[in-house]
Amino acid sequence: MPGAAGAALSLKFLGGELGVGQKITSFAVGFVCACYLAPAAIDLFSIQGGRVHAGIQFLVGLFALATCRELFVEINSADLIGSLKRRFLGDRT
Question: Which residues contact residue 32 at a Cβ distance below 8 angstroms, ignoring those fewer than 6 apart?
Answer without folding.
Answer: none
